[in-house]
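Technical annex, item 7. During the second reporting period the consortium partners agreed on a shared format for inverse folding records so that results from different sites could be compared directly. Each record opens with the tokenized structure and is followed by the designed sequence. A conforming record, contributed by the partner at site C, is shown below for reference.
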């Protein structure tokens, strides 16, 4: 098995497999966080596997452990979709009793549960990971 890594990431970004990641502790609503990432040339992070999820949890603890962080996962009706349009299948990292509210359509890494996933209202302001 070969794992290809990104050789060059913009300043402040951490390379991992084929992507670059950066924690932003300034709190924004989901759409503003997504726009910020787009303006940086990327998108909200999509931890589609255990290794990426573990890295993002590590970065979140290093950034500001008192902040929840948006990731690029939202509800589309009864289906969870990544910001690239693909459906959530296989790996997930939901905190206990999550997702739990139909009106909460965005997902954060939850600070109080070792950065497992929790559904939240998209109008809430949180940190984010590009």
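Designed sequence (site C submission):
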């Amino acid at each position: 098995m070969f794992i290809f890594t990104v050789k060059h990431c913009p300043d402040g970004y951490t390379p991992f497999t084929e992507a670059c990641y950066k924690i932003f502790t300034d709190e924004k609503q989901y759409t503003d966080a997504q726009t910020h990432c787009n303006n940086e040339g990327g998108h909200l992070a999509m931890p589609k596997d255990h290794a990426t999820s573990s890295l993002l949890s590590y970065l979140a603890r290093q950034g500001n452990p008192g902040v929840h962080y948006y990731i690029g996962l939202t509800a589309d009706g009864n289906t969870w979709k990544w910001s690239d349009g693909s459906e959530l299948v296989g790996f997930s990292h939901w905190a206990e009793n999550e997702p739990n509210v139909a009106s909460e359509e965005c997902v954060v890494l939850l600070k109080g549960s070792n950065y497992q996933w929790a559904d939240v209202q998209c109008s809430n302001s949180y940190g984010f990971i590009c």
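The first strand starts at residue 14 and ends at 16. The helical segments are 30-39, 50-63. All partners now use this format for quarterly exchanges.
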